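Dig into these lines:

——
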Amino acid sequence: MTHDLGEPPILEAREAGFAYRRSAPVLTGVDVRVTAGRGVALVGESGAGKTTLLRLLLGLSRPTTGSVLFDGEELSPRDRAMMRGFRRSVQPVFQDPYSSLDPRRRVGAIVAEPLRSLGLAPRREGVDRQVAAALEAVGLPPDAAGRYPHEFSGGQRQRVAIARAIVCEPRVLLADEPVSALDVSTRVRIVDLLAELRETRGLTVVMVSHDLAVVATLCEHTAVLERGRVVEQGDTRAVLGSPTHPYTRKLIAGIPRLPKP
Protein backbone atom coordinates (compact mmCIF):
# COMPACT_ATOMS: atom_id res chain seq x y z
CA MET A 1 0.00 0.00 0.00
CA THR A 2 1.49 3.36 -0.98
CA HIS A 3 1.16 6.72 0.74
CA ASP A 4 1.82 10.28 -0.31
CA LEU A 5 5.07 11.57 1.11
CA GLY A 6 6.54 15.04 1.20
CA GLU A 7 4.04 17.81 1.77
CA PRO A 8 2.31 17.59 5.17
CA PRO A 9 -1.36 16.62 4.91
CA ILE A 10 -4.23 19.00 5.58
CA LEU A 11 -6.33 16.07 6.75
CA GLU A 12 -5.24 12.61 7.79
CA ALA A 13 -6.86 9.46 9.09
CA ARG A 14 -4.21 7.59 11.04
CA GLU A 15 -4.93 3.96 11.91
CA ALA A 16 -8.56 5.09 12.23
CA GLY A 17 -11.21 2.62 13.30
CA PHE A 18 -14.90 3.03 14.01
CA ALA A 19 -17.49 0.75 15.56
CA TYR A 20 -21.00 1.26 16.87
CA ARG A 21 -21.60 -0.09 20.36
CA ARG A 22 -21.60 -3.91 20.52
CA SER A 23 -21.20 -4.14 16.76
CA ALA A 24 -18.44 -5.35 14.49
CA PRO A 25 -16.06 -2.56 13.37
CA VAL A 26 -17.19 -0.49 10.38
CA LEU A 27 -13.61 0.73 9.83
CA THR A 28 -10.32 -0.87 10.89
CA GLY A 29 -6.82 0.63 10.76
CA VAL A 30 -7.52 3.12 7.97
CA ASP A 31 -4.66 5.38 6.82
CA VAL A 32 -5.56 8.13 4.33
CA ARG A 33 -3.75 11.42 3.75
CA VAL A 34 -5.20 14.51 2.07
CA THR A 35 -2.53 16.91 0.80
CA ALA A 36 -3.16 20.29 -0.82
CA GLY A 37 -4.15 20.14 -4.47
CA ARG A 38 -4.22 16.35 -4.68
CA GLY A 39 -7.77 15.02 -5.00
CA VAL A 40 -8.55 11.82 -3.11
CA ALA A 41 -11.23 9.29 -4.06
CA LEU A 42 -12.70 6.76 -1.63
CA VAL A 43 -14.15 3.85 -3.58
CA GLY A 44 -15.70 0.50 -2.75
CA GLU A 45 -18.99 -1.34 -2.69
CA SER A 46 -21.93 -0.31 -0.50
CA GLY A 47 -21.13 -1.06 3.13
CA ALA A 48 -17.36 -0.79 2.59
CA GLY A 49 -17.12 2.11 5.08
CA LYS A 50 -16.61 5.00 2.65
CA THR A 51 -19.28 7.32 4.07
CA THR A 52 -18.27 6.48 7.65
CA LEU A 53 -14.68 7.48 6.80
CA LEU A 54 -15.95 10.71 5.24
CA ARG A 55 -17.90 11.44 8.46
CA LEU A 56 -14.69 10.99 10.47
CA LEU A 57 -12.82 13.35 8.13
CA LEU A 58 -15.69 15.87 8.51
CA GLY A 59 -15.54 15.68 12.30
CA LEU A 60 -19.16 14.49 12.41
CA SER A 61 -18.10 11.24 14.11
CA ARG A 62 -15.05 10.45 16.24
CA PRO A 63 -12.89 7.40 15.59
CA THR A 64 -13.15 4.72 18.26
CA THR A 65 -9.51 3.80 17.61
CA GLY A 66 -6.72 5.76 15.95
CA SER A 67 -7.13 9.44 15.12
CA VAL A 68 -8.06 12.11 12.58
CA LEU A 69 -5.61 15.00 12.24
CA PHE A 70 -6.13 18.49 10.84
CA ASP A 71 -2.94 20.37 9.97
CA GLY A 72 -0.99 17.85 12.03
CA GLU A 73 -3.08 18.14 15.20
CA GLU A 74 -5.65 15.64 16.40
CA LEU A 75 -9.15 16.88 15.72
CA SER A 76 -10.76 17.79 19.04
CA PRO A 77 -14.50 18.68 19.02
CA ARG A 78 -14.10 20.30 22.45
CA ASP A 79 -11.49 22.77 21.16
CA ARG A 80 -13.73 25.54 19.82
CA ALA A 81 -10.93 27.56 18.21
CA MET A 82 -9.60 24.49 16.39
CA MET A 83 -13.07 23.43 15.22
CA ARG A 84 -13.84 26.92 13.94
CA GLY A 85 -10.68 26.87 11.82
CA PHE A 86 -11.47 23.32 10.73
CA ARG A 87 -15.05 24.16 9.69
CA ARG A 88 -13.83 27.11 7.67
CA SER A 89 -11.21 24.98 5.94
CA VAL A 90 -13.22 21.80 5.35
CA GLN A 91 -16.73 21.95 3.89
CA PRO A 92 -19.11 19.16 2.81
CA VAL A 93 -21.20 18.59 -0.30
CA PHE A 94 -23.79 15.85 0.17
CA GLN A 95 -25.28 13.36 -2.24
CA ASP A 96 -28.85 14.57 -2.46
CA PRO A 97 -29.42 18.27 -3.28
CA TYR A 98 -33.13 17.79 -2.58
CA SER A 99 -32.67 16.94 1.10
CA SER A 100 -29.55 19.00 1.86
CA LEU A 101 -31.22 22.38 1.17
CA ASP A 102 -33.87 23.84 3.48
CA PRO A 103 -36.96 24.33 1.25
CA ARG A 104 -38.28 27.15 3.48
CA ARG A 105 -35.26 29.40 3.02
CA ARG A 106 -34.22 31.47 0.03
CA VAL A 107 -31.03 30.45 -1.75
CA GLY A 108 -29.19 33.58 -0.58
CA ALA A 109 -29.78 32.65 3.08
CA ILE A 110 -28.80 29.02 2.42
CA VAL A 111 -25.51 30.00 0.76
CA ALA A 112 -24.74 32.57 3.50
CA GLU A 113 -25.27 30.06 6.33
CA PRO A 114 -21.58 29.04 6.74
CA LEU A 115 -20.56 32.72 6.96
CA ARG A 116 -23.04 33.29 9.79
CA SER A 117 -22.38 30.05 11.68
CA LEU A 118 -18.61 30.63 11.57
CA GLY A 119 -18.90 34.27 12.58
CA LEU A 120 -17.46 35.40 9.23
CA ALA A 121 -20.44 37.55 8.23
CA PRO A 122 -19.48 41.21 7.86
CA ARG A 123 -22.11 43.89 7.19
CA ARG A 124 -25.12 42.85 5.15
CA GLU A 125 -23.72 44.18 1.88
CA GLY A 126 -20.52 42.18 2.47
CA VAL A 127 -22.50 38.96 2.90
CA ASP A 128 -24.55 39.72 -0.21
CA ARG A 129 -21.34 40.30 -2.17
CA GLN A 130 -19.79 37.01 -1.02
CA VAL A 131 -23.00 35.10 -1.77
CA ALA A 132 -23.18 36.64 -5.26
CA ALA A 133 -19.55 35.70 -5.90
CA ALA A 134 -20.17 32.10 -4.81
CA LEU A 135 -23.27 31.83 -7.01
CA GLU A 136 -21.35 33.26 -9.97
CA ALA A 137 -18.52 30.77 -9.35
CA VAL A 138 -20.95 27.86 -9.73
CA GLY A 139 -22.64 29.31 -12.81
CA LEU A 140 -25.87 30.61 -11.26
CA PRO A 141 -27.26 34.12 -11.91
CA PRO A 142 -27.32 36.78 -9.14
CA ASP A 143 -31.13 36.66 -8.94
CA ALA A 144 -30.90 33.04 -7.79
CA ALA A 145 -30.32 34.40 -4.27
CA GLY A 146 -33.94 35.54 -4.01
CA ARG A 147 -35.48 32.25 -5.11
CA TYR A 148 -36.29 28.99 -3.30
CA PRO A 149 -34.74 25.55 -3.89
CA HIS A 150 -37.91 24.11 -5.46
CA GLU A 151 -37.57 26.63 -8.31
CA PHE A 152 -34.38 24.92 -9.51
CA SER A 153 -33.54 21.67 -11.27
CA GLY A 154 -31.56 18.94 -9.53
CA GLY A 155 -28.30 20.04 -11.13
CA GLN A 156 -28.93 23.67 -10.18
CA ARG A 157 -29.67 22.63 -6.60
CA GLN A 158 -26.36 20.82 -6.42
CA ARG A 159 -24.74 24.04 -7.68
CA VAL A 160 -26.44 25.88 -4.79
CA ALA A 161 -25.06 23.27 -2.39
CA ILE A 162 -21.57 23.73 -3.86
CA ALA A 163 -21.92 27.54 -3.60
CA ARG A 164 -22.78 27.12 0.09
CA ALA A 165 -19.68 24.95 0.54
CA ILE A 166 -17.26 27.39 -1.16
CA VAL A 167 -18.63 30.72 0.17
CA CYS A 168 -16.21 30.70 3.12
CA GLU A 169 -13.28 29.85 0.80
CA PRO A 170 -12.39 26.44 2.25
CA ARG A 171 -9.27 24.49 1.41
CA VAL A 172 -10.98 21.10 1.14
CA LEU A 173 -14.36 19.94 -0.18
CA LEU A 174 -15.53 16.58 1.16
CA ALA A 175 -18.13 15.27 -1.28
CA ASP A 176 -20.30 12.21 -0.71
CA GLU A 177 -21.47 10.88 -4.10
CA PRO A 178 -22.07 14.48 -5.27
CA VAL A 179 -23.35 13.54 -8.74
CA SER A 180 -25.05 10.16 -8.20
CA ALA A 181 -28.55 11.67 -7.80
CA LEU A 182 -28.28 13.51 -11.14
CA ASP A 183 -28.94 12.46 -14.73
CA VAL A 184 -25.96 11.69 -16.94
CA SER A 185 -25.67 15.02 -18.80
CA THR A 186 -26.11 17.03 -15.58
CA ARG A 187 -23.53 14.80 -13.89
CA VAL A 188 -20.95 15.72 -16.53
CA ARG A 189 -21.58 19.45 -16.02
CA ILE A 190 -21.21 19.19 -12.22
CA VAL A 191 -17.96 17.22 -12.60
CA ASP A 192 -16.69 19.93 -14.98
CA LEU A 193 -17.67 22.55 -12.39
CA LEU A 194 -15.78 20.77 -9.61
CA ALA A 195 -12.73 20.48 -11.88
CA GLU A 196 -12.96 24.21 -12.66
CA LEU A 197 -13.22 25.11 -8.95
CA ARG A 198 -10.15 23.01 -8.24
CA GLU A 199 -8.30 24.99 -10.89
CA THR A 200 -9.55 28.50 -10.06
CA ARG A 201 -9.81 28.28 -6.27
CA GLY A 202 -7.10 25.77 -5.44
CA LEU A 203 -9.66 23.48 -3.81
CA THR A 204 -8.69 19.98 -2.79
CA VAL A 205 -11.53 17.50 -3.35
CA VAL A 206 -12.08 14.33 -1.32
CA MET A 207 -14.83 12.29 -2.91
CA VAL A 208 -16.80 9.17 -2.12
CA SER A 209 -17.91 7.78 -5.46
CA HIS A 210 -18.82 4.51 -7.15
CA ASP A 211 -18.41 6.19 -10.55
CA LEU A 212 -14.84 5.42 -11.54
CA ALA A 213 -14.99 7.76 -14.56
CA VAL A 214 -15.68 10.65 -12.16
CA VAL A 215 -12.86 9.44 -9.91
CA ALA A 216 -10.42 9.36 -12.84
CA THR A 217 -11.40 12.92 -13.84
CA LEU A 218 -11.21 14.61 -10.42
CA CYS A 219 -8.86 12.65 -8.16
CA GLU A 220 -5.14 11.95 -8.45
CA HIS A 221 -5.15 9.50 -5.52
CA THR A 222 -7.56 6.62 -4.92
CA ALA A 223 -8.12 4.55 -1.79
CA VAL A 224 -10.09 1.31 -2.21
CA LEU A 225 -12.07 0.13 0.81
CA GLU A 226 -13.35 -3.40 1.37
CA ARG A 227 -15.24 -4.23 4.56
CA GLY A 228 -13.83 -1.25 6.42
CA ARG A 229 -10.19 -1.71 5.43
CA VAL A 230 -8.09 0.03 2.77
CA VAL A 231 -6.94 -2.83 0.55
CA GLU A 232 -5.18 -0.72 -2.07
CA GLN A 233 -4.33 2.94 -2.56
CA GLY A 234 -2.08 5.08 -4.68
CA ASP A 235 -2.00 7.07 -7.90
CA THR A 236 -5.45 6.84 -9.49
CA ARG A 237 -4.15 5.88 -12.93
CA ALA A 238 -2.11 3.05 -11.42
CA VAL A 239 -4.92 1.81 -9.14
CA LEU A 240 -7.54 1.86 -11.91
CA GLY A 241 -5.24 0.91 -14.77
CA SER A 242 -3.11 -1.78 -13.10
CA PRO A 243 -4.88 -2.87 -9.90
CA THR A 244 -2.93 -5.24 -7.67
CA HIS A 245 -5.68 -6.39 -5.27
CA PRO A 246 -8.35 -8.90 -6.38
CA TYR A 247 -11.10 -6.74 -4.87
CA THR A 248 -10.00 -3.70 -6.92
CA ARG A 249 -9.88 -5.85 -10.05
CA LYS A 250 -13.40 -7.04 -9.30
CA LEU A 251 -14.63 -3.46 -8.83
CA ILE A 252 -13.36 -2.29 -12.20
CA ALA A 253 -14.04 -5.47 -14.17
CA GLY A 254 -17.23 -4.01 -15.63
CA ILE A 255 -15.66 -0.74 -16.76
CA PRO A 256 -15.07 -0.85 -20.54
CA ARG A 257 -12.34 1.81 -20.75
CA LEU A 258 -9.83 2.98 -18.18
CA PRO A 259 -7.13 5.66 -18.10
CA LYS A 260 -3.77 4.14 -18.92
CA PRO A 261 -1.20 4.16 -16.11
About this structure: Residues 11-252 form a domain with the Rossmann fold fold (CATH 3.40.50.300). The beta strands are 11-18, 27-34, 40-43, 65-70, 73-74, 90-93, 172-176, 204-208, 221-226, 229-235. The chain has one domain: 11-252.
